[in-house]
Amino acid sequence: MLTEGVVDYTKEGSILTAEQRQFYEKNGYLLIRNCVPQYELNRFRQRFQDICEKKVKAPDNMTVMKDISIAKSEFKDGEKAITKIQDFADDPVLFEYCKYPGVVDVVKDLIGNPKSTVMAMHTMLINKPPDNGKLTSRHPMHQDLQYFPFRPADFICCAWTAMEKITRANGCLVVVPGTHKGVLLPHEYPKWEGGVNKAYHGIQDYDPSNPRIHVEMEAGDTVFFHPILIHGSGANRTEGFRKAISCHYANDDICRYVNVEGTTQETLAEEIIEIAKKRLTKYGLDPNTVTLDFADIWRVRAREVNGHRSNL
Q: Which one of 57, 73, 184, 291 is least enclosed by Cβ atoms within 10 Å?
């Protein structure tokens, strides 16, 4: 399955068939139905509500986000005011998603083998809000590798699980099959009239005529995809919130941090470093006296799912 840093997708994995692994290798994504059971989703949903309502203390490094349109509205605090929580690896309930065997076993079949040490690098619970007409609930077409200062890309994989029925109406994922075989393209903030959420970068000059697949899902369905795969999501045109939970994994045996200075990622890295520095005031530190690099931020975010961390 894994020889000298190359995954052999022609053979079956520990749980995936050879056909499933070859589909991922060809298209850059793989949809697994009924991957996470409803009782687990219920636990994660309740935890999200408890965090939003401040019934439990959120970990210090968790980021709680509001849609740009909600942040300027009359929404009261609570679940309807929060559109995303990031970096929940230190939350004892939500991190159970990252460790769920039905997810991790698929990840290992795609980016390693059963003995690989796998790291949870980036975690999110997304509560996509009903769009207010300004289309700010969209997520521009992008590649996740834009945000990551570690490589190689073939040993990084996202697991994205629907927490309820997700359709084109409420903003399902949209993927462009096969684009993971390309390169990381230049990204920037889209010039959308209604505004763009913080750090929602999109591919420059993206051609919307590219053939796309709308990934509609039932609760518990999970799509696994490559970090160079071009993807995004549409606006939520329903009256309800659309929830999904996700984790980006990396194979710690293979992946290493890289310097993004002088690359198309440099501008984004500087933006995220500035955000991180502002948060240091919570710990009584002066941001102007602290030096951070992009990899430092990801070292703090990362948490081992199994095995012993050595590189990330």
A: 291
Structure tokens at 76: 């009261």
* Amino acid, single-letter form, for residue 118: V
How far apart are the C-alpha atoms of 212 and 200, rounded to whole Å?
20
User: Is the dihedral angle over the CA atoms 295, 255, 312, 250 positive or is it negative?
Assistant: positive
Measured CA to CA, the distance from residue 148 to residue 258 in angstroms comes to 9
Cis, bond preceding 186 (omega within 30 deg of 0): no
Domains and CATH numbers, the chain: 18-306 (2.60.120.620)
Q: For the chain, how far is it from start to end, CA to CA, in angstroms?
A: 22
**Helix (H), strand (E), coil (C) string for 189-226:** CCCCCCCCCCCCCEECCCCCCCCCEEECECCCCEEEEC
Torsional sign, CA 131, 134, 136, 138 = positive
Exposure string for 97-124, b = 16+ CB within 10 A, e = fewer? bbebebbbbbbbbbbbeeebbbbbbbbb
